[in-house]
């Protein structure tokens, strides 16, 4: 069987980390694409030289030519600019929308059968725009955010309860922004809902509220520390989990930004919800029952995403 081909659009901090992780896991041969000349080629060469030590056979190449992504099975998009301290994700909209237009055209021409994972911010608007520009079916274009946001929530909860992160199953819904919705009623530690652990006196509502707040601001906390860019290790590993679910037809239930039509009261919008990821891409959105607070919070998040789509349409008249 021929090796799979993984195209990484954007060879910056996340792109380079993605290439390393994909090679270590031997997901397939890897093509790193970037508009900056030399960067994808240099990173590809450097990463290839990890092979003899880490004992992977993945072929890694760098390019500035979209023709080289031809036939890719998976495309992960990080092209664009990241946040700097003081910026919101939404401040990136104007620049990154233009980038999505070029990337969408490249995918449409060279690998229209790929499974596409968008990471570029502001995530929910950029994944929508990328789908529009590429013309791929909605189930084949998804956004990475929920896996990362849930991992951040899980990390903080494991610290709070002093338990292994492996036993925390955290649940975050909504857009990837300050309005995201960590849902404590569906968040468990080995099946025990966090709300029950609070009732048992193992934490307090105030402390859990603080953790929810910290999760919402989790990206900004890292931006403020790094000063020169945003998080990249955990975003990359989150997208790799999604790519593996698709390539291995794993039917994993992952929170991803997917096109939701008819569930959660939504009529065609990209937003973060639990979805089954398998060989058909985003195979089935799972609609959970939300309490009033979570439902209201989700509506705030959905409204924030909708506002961004209006802004996208104002910038680029070709978007319907
Ligand atoms: P960075 O290290 O700057 O890499 C971005 C790369 O994109 C650079 O190498 C650029 O040269 C390249 N690029 C710019 N324009 C184009 C273009 N038209 N075509 C191809 N390549 C281009 O950023 P990063 O890797 O740290 O972050 C990438 C994106 O991911 C940013 O938009 C971040 O905001 C976003 N991000 C999202 C999350 C989510 O959870 C959704 C988390 C962290 C970062």
TrEMBL record:
Write down the chemical reaction(s) this protein catalyses: (S)-malate + NAD(+) = oxaloacetate + NADH + H(+)
Which SUPFAM superfamilies has this protein been placed in? LDH C-terminal domain-like, NAD(P)-binding Rossmann-fold domains
Q: What Gene3D superfamilies does its record include?
A: Lactate dehydrogenase/glycoside hydrolase, family 4, C-terminal, NAD(P)-binding Rossmann-like Domain
Q: Which InterPro entries match?
A: L-lactate/malate_DH, Lactate/malate_DH_C, Lactate/malate_DH_N, Lactate_DH/Glyco_Ohase_4_C, Malate_DH_type3, NAD(P)-bd_dom_sf
Residue sites binding substrate per the record? 83, 89, 121, 152
Q: Which Pfam families match?
A: Ldh_1_C, Ldh_1_N
Q: Which residues form the Lactate/malate dehydrogenase N-terminal domain?
A: 5-143
Which source organism? Sphingomonas daechungensis
Residues in domain Lactate/malate dehydrogenase C-terminal?
Answer: 148-307
Reported EC number(s) for this entry are 1.1.1.37
Family that this chain belongs to: Belongs to the LDH/MDH superfamily. MDH type 3 family.
Q: What is this protein called?
A: Malate dehydrogenase
Keyword S-adenosyl-L-methionine tagged: no
Catalytic positions are 176 (proton acceptor)
**UniProt-recorded Gene Ontology molecular function terms:** L-malate dehydrogenase (NAD+) activity
